[in-house]
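User: My collaborator sent over this chain with a note saying "see what the structure looks like." That's all I know about it. Can you take a look?
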Amino acid sequence: MKIIRSATHFGSSKKASLEICRQVLIKKDSVLGFATGSSPMEIYKYLIQYYKEGLVTFKQVTAFNLDEYVGIEKTHPNSYAYFMKDNLFSHIDIDINKCNIENGLADDLEKECENYEKAIDSAGGIDLQILGIGTNGHIGFNEPSDKISAKTHIVKLTQSTIDSNSKYFSDMQMPTKAITMGIASIMKAKKIILIASGKEKAQAIYDSVYGEITPKMPASILRLHPDVSVYVDDEAGKFII
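Assistant: Without extra context I'll predict from the sequence alone. Here is the result:
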């Protein structure tokens, strides 16, 4: 792992966004893996800025989202499909038909998982995957477990994840299940960027970088990948540098 530390989350996000831009400038038809949540939001603001300044185009980019809630409409403000459209896709020139997000309302969720995995493979795999990290070390919705869930799968969310995310649900009860890319799906990406901010993420970052490599700390498995960059602010990185 390469640890890139900045004083603030804005600094981390700008550095990470520049790495994403480099990827797209080098390979215009890059396949990018996107994450949701508060951690990557500043990255997306910078990507929008660079696009509006004419520094980068996303016309040929294909996108795959890490995860989506089960049982929620894509048009619902708390769906991850809505999040990506609202915070990035509707502000850049990406082809919306190339923006792939799991369907949490599919009649056959297992088949949806299989088809999503096939779609990633058909696109040639993910060139660069963006990740956040949960306070319990989860990446995507791969929660701490005794075993690795390799491919895209359905997951029951832990109480800590529900507690962290339920604040975003004001008009409905937060879903308790999600579809997520698996650990092996993530690890097949050619390059991975993980971004974290705030003191509440510090222990998870420390355990991921220095602790035992175990599915009980899912992000620790990233240490087995050949090209991972971890962007942290001073608070998130206070135990590691």
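A starting point for your reply to your collaborator: The first helix runs from residue 9 to 26.
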